[in-house]
């Protein structure tokens, strides 16, 4: 028997993340590793668990295998209830018809039957590619208190970056009077976070209308939200004051990881009352060898450090050989760095092997090495390069 839910969360996790280059060649953007332990999708899933939302539809599409395996039954986030939990929802055939999700609104539309099983009062629509901690229950309470039909979470961004976002303009009571999708000349710096609360019966009718419009992009920001505003629906902005980062570029992903190394980071991963949950791979403790030097870094379980690591993030199972120097870098799970290597301002993906004497990067542009790359002895990866997954690099 299906239990009625106050709110069902729909997590959009099918993003290609093309601006992350080689890091998303073989995985969806929400599956990209972060912070020495996590994946990006851990954050919205943990937010749901911490907010008392126990039914989450995870909508996958691009390169879904790793993400599907990772979410599994939802147990790491306590989202494995028999009457809900985390459920992976890829596009599927219906009768004689099947198609990819054509936009954010279409992804929800194609899963109307899933949502209606729980007869929710509200749906919470989330993006799977942002780093933040947020109690969604407070946003839902705000939505209910305002008597809103739709509520959009917003955050102030630097004015020079505002054109990258959906911009929300409000009156003095917080009611939305205008929504501009990535405007070239924004009127404010109040940006949509891509987090929405809707009354289910209201948004259902708009999803049906949007699906019937052959000219629609089937997108919330471009189509559905403007249509609701034009129809006079009650729409409010919910102002979020915490840390929030769109890690959709190499630079922003690197910056967000480096920000964890601040003495008092804006994003507190050590907060007991609002933890970020993830899969535990049961690695042994890390080992720092005799003569090794580690300064201001995150060192994951199972790492073996015999060289020098400074201002860097090492994921579980990474090996750093004797005489090697790693600075201002991110090295992901199970990568093996040999002796006398130099790695500077780089992102190295999972299961990369560097033989002795390899040089990667420089002190200005970020260098990125894709998963499974093998760099032979004394080979050089130049500053700012992006190395495709699986390549074998030899000394020139």
Automatic annotation (TrEMBL):
What are the Nucleotidyl transferase domain coordinates in residue numbering?
9-262
The record's annotation in Pfam families points to: Hexapep_GlmU, NTP_transferase
Domain Glucose-1-phosphate adenylyltransferase/Bifunctional protein GlmU-like C-terminal hexapeptide span(s) in chain numbering: 292-365
Q: One GO MF term, please?
A: glucose-1-phosphate adenylyltransferase activity
Q: Which reaction does it catalyse?
A: alpha-D-glucose 1-phosphate + ATP + H(+) = ADP-alpha-D-glucose + diphosphate
Q: What is its EC number?
A: 2.7.7.27
Q: Where does alpha-D-glucose 1-phosphate bind?
A: 101, 166, 181-182, 192
Q: Which UniProt keywords apply?
A: ATP-binding, Carbohydrate metabolism, Glycogen biosynthesis, Glycogen metabolism, Nucleotide-binding, Nucleotidyltransferase, Transferase
Q: Which GO terms describe its biological process?
A: glycogen biosynthetic process
Site positions (Could play a key role in the communication between the regulatory and the substrate sites) are 61, 100
The pathway is: Glycan biosynthesis; glycogen biosynthesis
* Highest taxon above the source species: Bacteria
What HAMAP family does the annotation carry?
Answer: GlgC
Output the PANTHER family linked to this UniProt entry. GLUCOSE-1-PHOSPHATE ADENYLYLTRANSFERASE (PTHR43523:SF2), GLUCOSE-1-PHOSPHATE ADENYLYLTRANSFERASE-RELATED (PTHR43523)
Family under the similarity heading:
Belongs to the bacterial/plant glucose-1-phosphate adenylyltransferase family.
Q: How does it assemble?
A: Homotetramer.
The record's listing under NCBIfam families reads: glgC, PRK05293.1
Protein function: Involved in the biosynthesis of ADP-glucose, a building block required for the elongation reactions to produce glycogen. Catalyzes the reaction between ATP and alpha-D-glucose 1-phosphate (G1P) to produce pyrophosphate and ADP-Glc.
Q: What is the protein name for this chain? A: Glucose-1-phosphate adenylyltransferase
């Amino acid at each position: 028997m299906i239990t009625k839910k106050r709110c069902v969360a729909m997590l959009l996790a099918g993003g290609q993340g093309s601006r992350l280059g080689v890091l998303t060649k073989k995985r969806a953007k929400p599956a990209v590793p972060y912070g020495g332990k996590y994946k990006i999708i851990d954050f919205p899933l943990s937010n749901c668990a911490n907010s008392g939302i126990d039914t989450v539809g995870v909508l996958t599409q691009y390169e879904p295998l790793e993400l599907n395996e990772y979410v599994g039954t939802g147990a790491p986030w306590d989202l494995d209830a028999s009457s809900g939990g985390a459920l992976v929802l890829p596009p599927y055939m219906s009768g004689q018809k099947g198609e990819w999700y054509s936009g954010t609104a279409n992804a929800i539309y194609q899963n109307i039957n899933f949502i209606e099983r729980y007869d929710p009062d509200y749906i919470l629509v989330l993006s799977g590619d942002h780093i933040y901690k947020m109690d969604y229950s407070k946003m839902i309470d705000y939505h209910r208190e305002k008597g809103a039909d739709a509520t959009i979470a917003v955050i102030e961004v630097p004015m020079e970056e505002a054109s990258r976002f959906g911009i929300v303009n409000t009156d003095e009571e917080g009611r939305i009077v205008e929504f501009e999708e990535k405007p070239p000349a924004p009127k404010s710096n109040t940006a949509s976070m891509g987090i929405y609360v809707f009354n289910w019966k209201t948004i259902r009718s708009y999803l049906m209308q949007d699906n019937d419009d052959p000219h629609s992009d089937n997108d919330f920001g471009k189509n559905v939200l403007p249509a609701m505003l034009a129809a006079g629906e009650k729409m409010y902005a919910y102002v979020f004051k915490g840390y929030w980062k769109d890690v959709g570029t190499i630079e922003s992903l690197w910056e967000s990881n480096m920000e964890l190394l601040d003495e008092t980071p804006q994003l507190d991963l050590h907060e007991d009352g609002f933890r970020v949950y993830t899969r535990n791979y049961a690695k042994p403790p890390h080992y720092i060898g005799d003569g090794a030097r580690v300064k201001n870094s995150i060192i994951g379980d199972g790492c073996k450090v015999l060289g020098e690591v400074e201002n860097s993030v090492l994921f579980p199972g990474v090996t750093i050989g004797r005489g090697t120097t790693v600075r201002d870098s991110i090295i992901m799970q199970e990568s093996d760095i040999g002796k006398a290597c130099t790695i500077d301002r780089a992102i190295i993906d999972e299961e990369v092997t560097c033989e002795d004497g390899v040089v990667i990067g420089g002190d200005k542009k970020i260098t990125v090495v894709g998963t499974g790359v093998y760099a032979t002895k004394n080979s050089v990866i130049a500053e700012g390069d992006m190395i495709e997954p699986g390549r074998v690099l030899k000394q020139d």
